[in-house]
Amino acid sequence: MSKYETVIGLEVHMQINTRSKVFCECSTQFGADPNANTCVVCTSQPGTIPILNKKTVEAIVKTGLALDFTINKQCTFARKQYFYPDVPKNYQITQSELPLCSKGKLAINVGSKEKIINITRMHLEEDAGKLIHEIGSKKLDYSLLDLNRAGIGLMELVTEPELSSPQEALSFLTELKNIVEYLGTSECNMEEGKMRCDINVSMRLVGQKEFGTRVEIKNMNSTSGVRDAIAYEVERQTEVLESGGKLIQETMFWEPKEGITKSMRTKEGMLDYRYFPEPDLVPFDLPNSFIEDLRKQLPEFPKIKKKRFINDYGLSEYDADYLTSTKMIADYYEEALNASQDKKTAAKPIANWISTELNAKLNASKIDISKALISSQNLAKLVSLILNGTISGKIAKIVFEEIYGKSLEPETIVKEKKLVQILDESVIIKICDEVIAESPKVVDEFKAGKERAIGAIIGLVMKKSKGQANPQLVNKILLVKLKT
């Protein structure tokens, strides 16, 4: 075991899900042409004044309430000074001494145990623009500037240095993303830059109270990247310390192709930012009624929903965990249940179809359930056809393939292709007799004591009936015939 322990803190930036930016009316639409969503305010033209978007304040307060923060009623802003070419003002409007949200916490799962991670603060600020250094496969010897992102509202969340492994950091981000998506306050799409993460990693001797030299890894845009970057940095720092070297406080970036961190610059301190109050935004107090109205709007969160699914629908912990893993999956499942005649009977079969057949389709297409090519209502109808005996589970898979990606009703396919399940015992008896006569070897194996052989006989009956014979009747009839 290493004589060093890992200390990790995260700074998470989440773009606030509003239609307009935090201090102007420009659109926050992703994917627009470069610099299309800009105006005199977010490009910092002389004489322009920022006007605070109320929706961004509502979003961060709701998120703060969900994460058990203390909400600071006084709302003040500051200017954070630095020169980056993607920040046109050369300062960022943010919050300094008094963030809107202080001292929150989030529970994560570490193996079979729960660990509480304390969160220092969460404040409101504006996003920067984006520098483009390459187009397609062509690397440029200059940089292009896109200010569409500049001025979009951000929630910046800073944890206490209480995470101790790449897995814990990954668990924290996954749990945070899930809660915020349930709230709807951010889309948290890391591929679109709507959720980004800075990682602070340091090493210290086991049992030592003082922190080691902190290294920051900037602008991580994938959870797998966060995990891999931390793992690499832990290994790198350990090697430096073991060899008697000294670490320096610096800012790094992650190079995923090489699987290493690289130095960007020495780390700035708080004094380098030269914070001072933002003169164009007057401090104001949030009324108690404003906060309490937002508290009433909080949704049912994943852990509560999971318990309800287990208690009300008799789902296993595994099924309930999967179905509440994202708000989109939970919504799809409940929409399907609401379209069913008997929720309790349909609950388990619908859960199975979502986690198996539908999930396989989504993974193959690399899309999420919101883009599924079968409606929740049609999936519910398909399950109902199985439950009422119209079709078998095997036929249902055929129907599923037929209706996936098409605006067709399951009942229509069943009628058109004559897939209705055979429930007439006389018809099934005839098919069973034919199979028994055609398969003497398997029949002899069953009669010799190999009871598993009946599975092969059932399979032959189902094949001969083109999957339409009722499996329960087939099993019942074969047992009678083979044991007499």
Key descriptive features of the protein:
single chain; 484 residues; alpha+beta; Arc Repressor Mutant, subunit A; 3 domains; 9-stranded mixed sheet; 16 strands; 40% helix; elongated
Distance between the termini: 66 Å
Q: Biggest sheet: strands, sense, closure?
A: 9 strands, mixed
Q: Count the beta strands.
A: 16
Tell me roughly what share of residues is in helical segments: 40-55%
Tell me, rounded to a whole number, the average pLDDT. Answer: 92
Shape: elongated
Number of domains: 3
Strand-pairing-aware structural class: alpha+beta
Spatial strand order of the main sheet: 2-6-7-10-1-11-12-13-14
- The total of helices stands at 16
Radius of gyration: 29 Å
Low-pLDDT stretches: none
Q: Strand content of the residues, in percent?
A: 15-25%
Topology:
Elements lengths: L3 E12 L38 H13 L3 E2 L2 E2 L2 E4 L9 E4 L6 E10 L2 E14 L3 E6 L2 E9 L6 E7 L6 H18 L11 E11 L9 E6 L2 H20 L7 E6 L4 E7 L3 H4 L2 E2 L6 E2 L2 H9 L5 H12 L3 H7 L3 H12 L4 H23 L10 H12 L5 H11 L6 H7 L8 H14 L1 H8 L5 H12 L6 H12 L2
Parallel strand pairs: 12-13
Antiparallel strand pairs: 1-10, 1-11, 2-6, 3-16, 4-5, 4-15, 6-7, 7-10, 8-9, 11-12, 13-14
Helix pairs in contact: 2-3, 6-7, 7-9, 8-9, 8-10, 9-10, 10-11, 13-15, 13-16, 14-15, 15-16
